[in-house]
Structures are given as structure tokens and as C-alpha cells.
């Protein structure tokens, strides 16, 4: 298998000035005619031949200008078409035949629920026609779609509609995109869809037509997405000065989609799960996801489309920046603290795990076999953290100047991560050479923090030691530039900070750049409590030996939401690790119960959404990551035991909280969502108690809920409770009965069953795979059953029999035949074998090894072979 390397990057030999495409859609095949205006790139190496990408294509005709080519003029391989001795400038005419209805990989042109749609990123365009399918070849596109008259009400492509005519029983729709773009941003859609329309007036006064296309039955679920889109458009104008550039912005929702959505120029394609929303059938969390993904894809119009990536090693240039942008958008629209906690939690429990394992790679990788495998939490979420650090190092004014410079300097170009940092450097005059290591060095830095207090001098010293463990292929790690935000507390409030005689206010950012650094705070009159890594100011692990009392204080009075939550996570972790190690943890337990009691009793004094976050225990993958060799069974048991205990000891407070909040939970406002999240967190705890009245509470909420958040929370509470089997089965049956016609809700029904922490879930999961509503070709269903079981049911997936692992391997072998991208993504949990005790690790490796016996796609092969290494 071939490896692609960043070091081998060469500019393209040819450029494509213009791309004219004609799609003739037939029932059983599609013919694609292309007319490419090619010119030699003066910066190339003057190669005699033209080499185009193309896969799974039937070549029907090929001509240069007016000359039809014969077999001695060119050569095809499974990956390429090479045309010998081409002129400096010419028009290449080519016709290929493709079979969208047989395309189960959902890459290129495929059919989903009767409609045609495309997914070209990263390298899917080459499954449509022969092309220079690389992001640094940018071209103007004209697209003609031809189908039987009456076959499709909707026939879309990028840009503006030039004409829509009927001739000889055929409908012919002609589109033109005036902006140059790489092939990965091409899109085509044809189907019978309904359309919700609205308008947006840009800051310069232009009217933009906004359209959301879905199946007719889903039209009533598009209003929230439309509002979110308008908010995103305004936000990007106000925050980044970015205005939309075409007269029309279209979104199409499809059922079968490998990811969340795709930012094709002017024609975003969305997984239905990221666009449809209605209070009756959508949870608050799903609403927020819709808003976030709508924002994300819209923001790509500048960070990705107008300025794109030179090559796929620079993927984080667009993804890291765009995730940072969507995350700030969500923070501005909702609770900033909660958004930061959610993001930090993903980094710590998912990205740190990736970064510590065999699949670890830098934000800018150096090589890959299959680029689809690199749409990872490292590229996306760690990449976003890197941009966030830059934004914080520069401060708001300089950061905005730097992004203005970036967008204007590189508009219409395909550039690198380094070009982006260069803009930050130029505008701020800061030396970011050490900071650049965040792009090239994989692995998570660990900060070991110790302190001392000198009463006589009234000085408090913090010593921070950083070190990054080796990752595959990178053993020699250098010290990184880590912006480390800190405050010091006494038992009332944050203290004024004085460093080198300089007053810093009550919060400061330390530039940690060396292997070891000591910072001295002056005029400190008593030993303070350090509030560390405020706002999760860098994606690093920290260890500092807190006393219980210090954590309690931070939980109660820190004014940084992340730090409050983190202090609680720390305290919970102390209880859990002692349980896991079989050590006495009475003091820790007592401290934890006392502080939760205090929070619950005074819950009206704080943000309910933040409190809800603070009530959830550290998740199992995060706990596992704290061990050299984790015992997943012990981790799961310790978590359940602590939940039981919190519930038992605080049932009065939990019940009170549940009851008091009842009348604050109406509607879609932020306070109502916050109240629902806290109330449902309380309910989940109460169901740990084996009492009829709590089951009835959940049953009642389930039956009476007028919104999906409450209905689903009640269902989960019942299904997860170990002593509510009969009630849970009734509720499951009723839920299916009520929602069987809403695919996205049926997926939630699959998911709750696949994530139940006890009982023979594997058997349930196998049954679900043959349920009438299951469809192994639909990625959302695979995620709802298989991914839910393997990556969100820690207790069951890691059952000591190893059957969970074998099951996943079997499923992957099967899915890989149809959809390699999905198969490869579902494999992730097995790649974490290194985290676990020898017995578990051996069983996980055995499951991976069983896959090596099969014929594998490049996608799965890369992950299996690297993770076994
Ligand atoms: N930029 C989009 C990437 C994407 C994708 C990549 C590989 C295979 C299928 C895919 N669908 C969408 C998503 C985004 O980050 O906006
Ligand atoms: Zn993206």
C-alpha cells in the first residue's frame, strides 16, 4: 500500500482554468461528460505527460481539442489516467459512466433514499470523472444536469442557476459557480424535495436567498436550522467581518451520509441528523448540535472555501480554524462555560486518548495511506485548540487583524498552516517559532506542578515541569509554548497577582516555554489555592496535588466555569481511583457528598446547566487514560457504585431539585434548557435508588413530556436502572410505537438500548441488527447501534469475555465490504488496546488480528496495521 508524504509535495504540473460538466442521470447509470481547459503550470517541472486521478470509472470517450485519442495516446490504471505528450494548453473532453445506485461507500455520486447526491471531500471527485483531484487545483465550474422530465423536482449544483429548460422530454438545468474552487467542494443533488425559503440581507445590503431542501415530511423540522443559519451569517459579519458572497445559499438534508455535513460551495449537504429539529422529536443537545454544525459549514465559506488547503496535510488549516469559529459561535449563542466544558471534555477523554495511542499524529500529519482516516479529533479539536491558543496569545484586536490579513492575502488560494501562523506573527510581531511545534509534534504535554509558600517573604512559587511522551515515529519531543492561565484564591475570592513587581489583575497568562519554569507571586499573605489552566487555556494534562479542602473551595467559588467543573472532576476522580485501587476513601467521599449537597441546596444561586455538568462523573475513557493499564471492569463498577452512593445520600436534595425545577422547564429558552438538564441529571441519580416512587417519577415524566429532552431522559433513566426492567421494556415499546416513523428518533431508541450498562447487551445489540428499522447501509443506524455499543458502552464493550471486541471486528469486516470509511471509523475503540490491562489488551489485539486475515479496504488496513504496531 502506498504512503503519501508531506515531504513529497510538488506543485501540480497542470492547472484547470475551467471545468464544464454534464451529468445525464439515468435509472441504472449516469454518464458524466467533462470539458477541462488545461494549461501547463509554469511552476511545474515540465512533465511531458498529464496524469489525472480516476477510480471506478468506465471510460467511454476521450479527446484533446478536436482529436479523439486512441489507446496508444493514453494509459489507465485503477487509480489514474495518463495521457502522453500533451500540449501547453488544450481542452480535454472525456466521458465516463458511473453507477450511483450501486455506490454503497457514499463517496462520489450516490443515491440516498431515491435522491442523487455527492460527497467529494477528500478524494471522492475522482469517482465521478478523471480530474486533478487535489485541493491546490482550483477551477471555475459549470454544471449541466439532464434527467427525464418530471423525474426530479430539484436539480442543484454549486453557484447560480443559469437556466432551467425542457427539451425532447428531458429537463436540463445549468449551474455556474463564479468562484474558483477545488474539486472536493463540487456538489450535485437531484431528487424530489421540498424547500423552505428565507432571505438574509448582508452587512453591505445584498439580499441572499436561503433554501433548505428536505423530504416533504420533514419541512416542519427546518425552521430552527434556518434561524441558526441567519444567526451564523450575522455572527461571521460581526465577529470576523466575513460576508456571504453568492446570491443563494442552499442546504440539502440526506439520510445516508458518512459524516455530519459538507461545506460544498453554495450547496451544503447535511446529514439529516444535523439539520432537522423539532421540540417534540429533538433533544436540547441535538438542537445545539444542529446550530453548531450549521454554523461550522457556513463558516467554511471563508475558512475552507475562499481560502483552502494546499494539500490534505494542511487539513487542520480549515478544520481547526472552523471548529474554533463554530465553538465561539455556540459559546456566544448559549452558555460559554458549558460549551468550554464540553469541548475540554472531548479533548481530554477522546483526543488525549488518540494522542497517547498507536494512531497518534500531529495536527499537521506527515504521512498517510488513506486521507479519510485523518478526519480525526486531533485535526479537528486539537487543531481548534491550537487556533484558540493563538487567538489568546494575540488578544482579540490583533487576532482579528491577523485573520483579516489571512483572508485578504490568500483569498482564492490554497495555502498552508504555516501561512496562517505567519499572518499571526506579522500582525503581532510575536515570535511564534516555538509555538509552531504544536503543528508538527504529536502527543499531549504533561505539566507537573508543584508549589511552595514562603511566609517570611510573602512569596508563593509555582514550578511547572513539562514533558511530552513519545508517539509513533516521534521519540524526541521538544518543550512547547504553552499559554497557561492562572489565578490564586484565598477562601473568599481571587487574589491580586503581582509578578516581578508588576500588577497583573486577578488572572494572568503565563507563557510556559521551557522544560521547567518557576514563577514567583509576590505580596501573597497566606498560602493560596491555585486555580490552574483556567478556561482550559491549552490542551495539556496537568497534575497538582490538591487537598480536599482546596478542591471544595474551588468548586464553590471559582469564577471560571471550567475550573469549577474541573475541580469537581478532580474530587470525583480521587474517590473513584481509591475505589478502583481498593483503598479507603471515606474522607474523599465525605468531602464530595458535602460539596454536592451544598450545590444542590443552593442550586438557585448558580447556572443550572453548569451544575448539571458538574454532577456528571468523569467518563470512563478519561478515567482509563489516567492509568498505565486500566481495568475497564473496575472502572465501570466504581462509577456505578459512586452514582448509587450519591443518590442514596442525597436523595432529598435531588428530589427537591427535581420538583422545584418542574415549572421552569417550558420552551426552548436557555434557562428552560438549563433547568431541564439539571432536572434530568437529578432524575438519573434518583433512578439509582431501588424504589417504586422514583420509577413512577420517570414513568410519569416519560408519559407526560411535551418535549423530547424530557421524554428521552426519562427513557434513559428507566433503561439504565438495574431494577426497572419491566417498566423500561414498557417504555421502550411505547417509544417505538410512538416514533417508528421518525428515523432519527428510532436511532435514539436503538442507542439507549445499545448503551445500557448492564445485562446481556450484546444479545440485544445482535437482535437490533435484524430489527425491521435497522439498515446496515445507513451510517446513522450503524452509529446508533454499533458505535454506541463500542464507544459509548464502556462496561459492556469491555466485558472480560472479549465478546464485545470480537463482535465489533466481525461487524467491521462486513461493513468494510460496502463502506470502508464507516468501517474504519467504527474501528477506533479497538485501537485503544494499549490503555488496558494485559488480559483486555490481548483480547482487543486478537480482535484486530482477526481482521488481518480478511481482504481489507485501504481505510481499514491502515488503521489495523498501525494500531497493531
Ligand atoms: N469538511 C467535511 C468533511 C467531510 C468528509 C470527509 C471524509 C469523508 C466524508 C466526509 N463528509 C464530510 C466536514 C466538515 O468538517 O465540515
Ligand atoms: Zn469542517
UniProtKB/TrEMBL annotation:
Enzyme class label: hydrolase
Catalysed conversion reaction: Release of an N-terminal amino acid, Xaa-|-Yaa- from a peptide, amide or arylamide. Xaa is preferably Ala, but may be most amino acids including Pro (slow action). When a terminal hydrophobic residue is followed by a prolyl residue, the two may be released as an intact Xaa-Pro dipeptide
Protein keywords: Aminopeptidase, Hydrolase, Metal-binding, Metalloprotease, Protease, Zinc
EC number: 3.4.11.2
Annotated coiled-coil segments of the chain: none
UniProt keyword annotation of Cell division present: no
Organism, as annotated: Nitrosomonas stercoris
Molecular functions per Gene Ontology: alanyl aminopeptidase activity; metallopeptidase activity; zinc ion binding
Gene3D superfamilies associated with the record: 2.60.40.1840, 3.30.2010.30, Neutral Protease Domain 2, Peptidase M1, alanyl aminopeptidase, C-terminal domain, tricorn interacting facor f3 domain
UniProt keyword Hydrolase present: yes
Cofactor: Zn(2+)
Record protein name field: Aminopeptidase N
Location of the Peptidase M1 alanyl aminopeptidase C-terminal domain: 550-869
Peptidase M1 membrane alanine aminopeptidase domain location: 224-435
Lineage: superkingdom: Bacteria
Aminopeptidase N-like N-terminal domain span: 98-185
GO biological process, one term: proteolysis
Chain's role: Aminopeptidase N is involved in the degradation of intracellular peptides generated by protein breakdown during normal growth as well as in response to nutrient starvation.
Residue span, Peptidase M1 alanyl aminopeptidase Ig-like fold domain: 443-545
Family recorded in the similarity comment: Belongs to the peptidase M1 family.
Amino acid at each position: 500500500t502506498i504512503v503519501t508524504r508531506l515531504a513529497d509535495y510538488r506543485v501540480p504540473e497542470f492547472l484547470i482554468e475551467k471545468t464544464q460538466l454534464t451529468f445525464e442521470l439515468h435509472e441504472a447509470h449516469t454518464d458524466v461528460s467533462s470539458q477541462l481547459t488545461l494549461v501547463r503550470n509554469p511552476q511545474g517541472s515540465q512533465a511531458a505527460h498529464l496524469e489525472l486521478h480516476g477510480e471506478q470509472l468506465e471510460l467511454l470517450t476521450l479527446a484533446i481539442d478536436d482529436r479523439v485519442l486512441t489507446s496508444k495516446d493514453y494509459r489507465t490504471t485503477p487509480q489514474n489516467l495518463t495521457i502522453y505528450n500533451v500540449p501547453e494548453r488544450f481542452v480535454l473532453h472525456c466521458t465516463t459512466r458511473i453507477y450511483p445506485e450501486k455506490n454503497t461507500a457514499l463517496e462520489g455520486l450516490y443515491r440516498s433514499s431515491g435522491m442523487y447526491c455527492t460527497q467529494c471531500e477528500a478524494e471522492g471527485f475522482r469517482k465521478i470523472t478523471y480530474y486533478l483531484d487535489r485541493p491546490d487545483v482550483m477551477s471555475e465550474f459549470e454544471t449541466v444536469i439532464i434527467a427525464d422530465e418530471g423525474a426530479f423536482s430539484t436539480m442543484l449544483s454549486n453557484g447560480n442557476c443559469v437556466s432551467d429548460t425542457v427539451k425532447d422530454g428531458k429537463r436540463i438545468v445549468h449551474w455556474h459557480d463564479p468562484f474558483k474552487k477545488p474539486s472536493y467542494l463540487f456538489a450535485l443533488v437531484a431528487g424530489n424535495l421540498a424547500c423552505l425559503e428565507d432571505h438574509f440581507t448582508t452587512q453591505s445590503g445584498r439580499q441572499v436567498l436561503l433554501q433548505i431542501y428536505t423530504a416533504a415530511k420533514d419541512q416542519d423540522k427546518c425552521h430552527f436550522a434556518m434561524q441558526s443559519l441567519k444567526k451564523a451569517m450575522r455572527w461571521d459579519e460581526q465577529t470576523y467581518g466575513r460576508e456571504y458572497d453568492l446570491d443563494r445559499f442552499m442546504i440539502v438534508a440526506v439520510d445516508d451520509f458518512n459524516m455530519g455535513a459538507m461545506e460544498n460551495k453554495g450547496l451544503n449537504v447535511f446529514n439529516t441528523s444535523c439539520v432537522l429539529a423539532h421540540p417534540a422529536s429533538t433533544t436540547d443537545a441535538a438542537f445545539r448540535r444542529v446550530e453548531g454544525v450549521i454554523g461550522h459549514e457556513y463558516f467554511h465559506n471563508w475558512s475552507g472555501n475562499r481560502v483552502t488547503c494546499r494539500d490534505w496535510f494542511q487539513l487542520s488549516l480549515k478544520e481547526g480554524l472552523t471548529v474554533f469559529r463554530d465553538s465561539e459561535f455556540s459559546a456566544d449563542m448559549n452558555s460559554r462555560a458549558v460549551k468550554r466544558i464540553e469541548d475540554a471534555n472531548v479533548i481530554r477523554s477522546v483526543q488525549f486518548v488518540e494522542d497517547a495511542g498507536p494512531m497518534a499524529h500531529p495536527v499537521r500529519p506527515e504521512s498517510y495511506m488513506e486521507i479519510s482516516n485523518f478526519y480525526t479529533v486531533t485535526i479537528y479539536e486539537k487543531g481548534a485548540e491550537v487556533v484558540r491558543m493563538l487567538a489568546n496569545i494575540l488578544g482579540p484586536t490583533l487576532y482579528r487583524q491577523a485573520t483579516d490579513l489571512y483572508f485578504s492575502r490568500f483569498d482564492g488560494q490554497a495555502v498552508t498552516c504555516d501561512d496562517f501562523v505567519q499572518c499571526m506573527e506579522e500582525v503581532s510581531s510575536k515570535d511564534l517559532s516555538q509555538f509552531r511545534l504544536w503543528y508538527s509534534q504529536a502527543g499531549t504535554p504533561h505539566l507537573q506542578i508543584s508549589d511552595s509558600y514562603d511566609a517570611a517573604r510573602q512569596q508563593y512559587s509555582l514550578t511547572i515541569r513539562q514533558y511530552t511522551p513519545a508517539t509513533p515515529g516521534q521519540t524526541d519531543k521538544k518543550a512547547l509554548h504553552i499559554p497557561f492561565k492562572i489565578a490564586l484564591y484565598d477562601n473568599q475570592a481571587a487574589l491580586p497577582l503581582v509578578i516581578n513587581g508588576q500588577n497583573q489583575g486577578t488572572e494572568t497568562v503565563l507563557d510556559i516555554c521551557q522544560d521547567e519554569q518557576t514563577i514567583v507571586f509576590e505580596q501573597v499573605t497566606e498560602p493560596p489555592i491555585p486555580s490552574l489552566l483556567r478556561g482550559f487555556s491549552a490542551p495539556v494534562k496537568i497534575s497538582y496535588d490538591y487537598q480536599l479542602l482546596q478542591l471544595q473551595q474551588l468548586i464553590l467559588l471559582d469564577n471560571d466555569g471550567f475550573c469549577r467543573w474541573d475541580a469537581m472532576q478532580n474530587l470525583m476522580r480521587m474517590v473513584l481511583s481509591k475505589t478502583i485501587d481498593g483503598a479507603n476513601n471515606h474522607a474523599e467521599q465525605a468531602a464530595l457528598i458535602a460539596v454536592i449537597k451544598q450545590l444542590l441546596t443552593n442550586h438557585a444561586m448558580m447556572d443550572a446547566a453548569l451544575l448539571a455538568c458538574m454532577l456528571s462523573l468523569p467518563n470512563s475513557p478519561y478515567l482509563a487514560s489516567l492509568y498505565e493499564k486500566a481495568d475497564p471492569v473496575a472502572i465501570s463498577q466504581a462509577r456505578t457504585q459512586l452514582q448509587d452512593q450519591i443518590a442514596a445520600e442525597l436523595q432529598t436534595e435531588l428530589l427537591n431539585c427535581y420538583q422545584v425545577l418542574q415549572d421552569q422547564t417550558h420552551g426552548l429558552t436557555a434557562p428552560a434548557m438549563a433547568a431541564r438538564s439539571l432536572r434530568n441529571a437529578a432524575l438519573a441519580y434518583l433512578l439509582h435508588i431501588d424504589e417504586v416512587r422514583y420509577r413512577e417519577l420517570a414513568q410519569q415524566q416519560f408519559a407526560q413530556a411535551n418535549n423530547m429532552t424530557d421524554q428521552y431522559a426519562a427513557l434513559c433513566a428507566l433503561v439504565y436502572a438495574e431494577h426497572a426492567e419491566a417498566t423500561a421494556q414498557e417504555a421502550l415499546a411505547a417509544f417505538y410505537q410512538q416514533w417508528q416513523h421518525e428515523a432519527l428518533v428510532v436511532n435514539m431508541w436503538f442507542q439507549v438500548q445499545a448503551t445500557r450498562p448492564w445485562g446481556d447487551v450484546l444479545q440485544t445489540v445482535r437482535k437490533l441488527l435484524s430489527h425491521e428499522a435497522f439498515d446496515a447501509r445507513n451510517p446513522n443506524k450503524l452509529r446508533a447501534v454499533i458505535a454506541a455499543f463500542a464507544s459509548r458502552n464502556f462496561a459492556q464493550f469491555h466485558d472480560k469475555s472479549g465478546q464485545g471486541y470480537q463482535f465489533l471486528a466481525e461487524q467491521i469486516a462486513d461493513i468494510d465490504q460496502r463502506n470502508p470509511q464507516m468501517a474504519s471509523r467504527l474501528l477506533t475503540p479497538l485501537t485503544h488496546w494499549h490503555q488496558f490491562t494485559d488480559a483486555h489488551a490481548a483480547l482487543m489485539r486478537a480482535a484486530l488480528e482477526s481482521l488481518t486475515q480478511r481482504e481489507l479496504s485501504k481505510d481499514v488496513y491502515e488503521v489495523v496495521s498501525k494500531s497493531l504496531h
